[in-house]
Design goal:
Layout lengths: L2 H14 L1 H38 L4 E6 L1 E3 L3 E3 L11 H8 L4 E16 L4 E9 L3 H4 L4 E4 L4 H5 L4 E4 L1 H7 L9 E4 L2 E9 L13 E5 H8 L7 E6 L5 H16 L6 E5 H44 L1 H9 L4 H37 L8 H16 L1
Parallel strand pairs: 5-10, 7-9
Antiparallel strand pairs: 1-11, 1-12, 2-3, 4-5, 4-8, 4-11, 6-9, 7-10, 8-9
């Protein structure tokens, strides 16, 4: 059978049963679309998290009170309390060779009210004058507070981009007053929009001097964390070990009552979780693809059974078994190819729509497209 005749016969057969052909393709369209969308969303989420963490500083070590245990998070250790980091530890770390900057921090959640009457519940962080530099944050408007403000219980505040828009939607926050836990603060700066993940990104926070947080807002000298900016990225592991040894000696403990996490540790853990979640979603989509493929196989088998007279007639006028097999194979491959193209197009459009909403920047990868095309083509051939 000539190739042109094969194409003509395939077109005639499929167009003669439009409803059956459409329903047969529907399963493969949904399956391929699902695979592309699920993989793209998972890869987009992974890239978003990676960018957010790297944007906070690649040479960053974060010291937390308590011990991080798999599956249990941060738990108390040593002296029976997770409040194990103090200002003395900051000086000890600052005097360590290879450490560029140290930012002691206390974070609490408060209701914040502006002098315009708007309010929001957000994270309030007490930090030093180097907080923005350590965390790679930029000031969009105004200034960050000074070392003098940080040491002298200053009443200055720097707002994240989201908090600024919530409290002052129609005006510049600079010069205005906000109240945190009954204490007034003057807004002197607004951070540039950073983006992030979860509910603790730099956009959704207020930064005040550490001394003010300790003496007035939290009433505690214990630190929530200590951020350490390392001068040489290649010495991250070395300094992590050195700081651990110094703090254990200072705390007089045999087992660390604190944890030190690097950005690579956090990124690796989150990436592993996202990868597992993406594969889970892809597996579900793959089941849809498999079901669609089985539907095509069953439909083609039914088609062969229904057309036994046509097959007999073709054999009677000289068609060989290879000619007949080629005809049905061409019909099956045509169905899966068209379904694959439609599925890829719909998957791309859905990913584009998700990205356009601003919720998540999806990434349509070549792998997901090749997977969809390969599976659809394979099912057609089988």
């Amino acid at each position: 059978m000539r190739f042109n005749d094969l194409l003509q016969e395939t077109y005639t057969s499929l167009s003669a049963n439009k409803t059956r052909s459409g329903l047969t393709m529907l399963g493969i369209v949904i399956g391929i679309m699902s695979v592309i969308v699920m993989l793209s969303i998972g890869q987009g989420a992974q890239q978003s998290i990676q960018s957010s963490i790297e944007g906070l500083g690649s040479n960053l070590l974060t010291i937390l009170p308590g011990v991080v245990q798999p599956g249990r998070g941060i738990v108390s250790s040593g002296r029976g309390s997770a409040e194990t980091l103090t200002n003395d530890d900051v000086e000890l770390i600052r005097n360590t060779d290879g450490v560029a900057l140290v930012s002691p921090e206390i974070t609490r959640r408060f209701q914040v009210t502006s002098d315009t009457g708007n309010n929001t519940n957000t994270s309030v962080t007490g930090g030093s004058e180097v907080y923005a530099e350590v965390h790679n944050l930029e000031i969009a408007d105004g200034n960050f507070f000074s070392d003098e403000n940080a040491r002298n219980i200053g009443r200055q505040a720097v707002l994240g981009a989201t908090v600024a828009s919530d409290l002052f939607p129609d005006d510049s926050p600079l010069g205005h007053t906000i109240r945190i836990n009954g204490t007034s603060f003057k807004v002197i700066g607004v951070l540039a929009e950073k983006g992030g993940f979860g509910f603790s990104g730099p956009d959704d926070m207020v930064i005040v001097p550490l001394s003010t947080m300790q003496k007035i807002l939290s009433g505690s000298d214990s630190l929530s964390s200590i951020a350490v900016n390392v001068a040489d990225k290649d010495r991250m592991t070395e300094l992590q070990t050195t700081i651990t040894e110094k703090l254990m000696i200072a705390h007089d403990v045999e087992e660390a009552d604190f944890s030190i996490l690097s950005q690579q540790d956090i990124l690796g853990t989150l990436s592993s979780v996202i990868t597992t979640f993406t594969m889970f979603l892809a597996s579900i989509a793959g089941i849809s693809l498999l079901v669609g493929g089985i539907g095509i196989m069953n439909m083609m088998l039914t088609t062969v059974t229904e057309r036994t007279r046509e097959i007999g007639l073709r054999k009677a006028i000289g068609a060989t078994g290879a000619d007949i097999s080629a005809q049905f194979l061409a019909e099956s491959v045509a169905l899966t190819a068209i379904g694959g193209i439609v599925g890829i197009a719909l998957g791309w459009l859905i990913c584009f729509a998700v990205t356009s909403t601003g919720l998540l920047a999806t990434q349509v990868s070549l792998l997901s497209v090749l997977l969809g095309v390969g599976v659809s083509g394979g099912i057609g051939i089988v």
